[in-house]
């Protein structure tokens, strides 16, 4: 649970905002109902209920986009109702709303929603003098300060989003080749085991290792070796489906996890990759580079270490038998 909160920013925010609404708005709702302000009291209670439902949905499905947007719209409608019903007293609540929204949806969406909210308030304020704002000076001051707050919140949220994406990219990809890294591989192997156990999905593992890579480095230099590793990833990806990710296992070893595949199809795909590398990749002297491949279908009851080990043993055998071939583990 804590790990999910740590890994998923929007889930953490939905949970935080949900908890804050329950804790902070519930007493207000009770007070409003107690003092006879039923419209605002019921609106507050609806907001509390929406916050609970949205957090529950996000935790259950893992989808934070729909509940985030839902809560952002609820906030906007809530802010509007509070302003119309409480007048000047309600305006102060718009400021935390302006900031909260950036924690729930993407910065552009949040900014768009705020534009709609502030424009609606502007129209109401202009057409119904005295209902929300006490004077036109107050109205102008409100729109200038809310616009500035929205703009700065947007800039801050936008920069944070870029940095979050970059951090995620750095944590999940191999810096040389751009393939997914070993850490991501471990996570995906665990997910595959889980999907196989729960839904019976079939998974295959392809482990590839470039042949005589040390000699390539020695003969053409480390830079050429690096270039070969960088070139290999798009070559493999061009022969794979988009959702079959390539991972760098380490050194010149790469892994592909293939979902929804039969043993025969996995072998055919591995052969296609082996042949593709041999045909499409060249060394500076125009000679071909080859790869040895070990494959293994996930077996029921097997853990990911045992599955990977079988593919590794098959790869070892492929090397032992003369390289540039596929061996089934
Ligand atoms: N250029 C480059 N070389 C690397 C990188 N990572 C590992 N290597 C080299 O890859 C070579 C792997 O050598 P070995 O494990 O002996 O394997 P090999 O020469 O490919 O021989 P076989 O696998 O048996 O065909 C080593 O020389 C490593 O230094 C890297 O990021 N860039």
Automatic annotation (TrEMBL):
GO terms for cellular component: plasma membrane. This is diguanylate cyclase. NCBIfam families: GGDEF (TIGR00254). Gene3D superfamilies: 3.30.70.270. The keyword Transmembrane helix applies. Residues 201-329 form the GGDEF domain. Its cofactor is Mg(2+). InterPro entries: Diguanylate_Cyclase, GGDEF_dom, Nucleotide_cyclase, Rev_trsase/Diguanyl_cyclase. Keywords: Membrane, Transmembrane, Transmembrane helix. CDD domains: GGDEF. It catalyses: 2 GTP = 3',3'-c-di-GMP + 2 diphosphate. Its EC number is 2.7.7.65. SUPFAM superfamilies: Nucleotide cyclase. The chain crosses the membrane at residues 9-31, 37-57, 69-88, 94-124, 131-158.
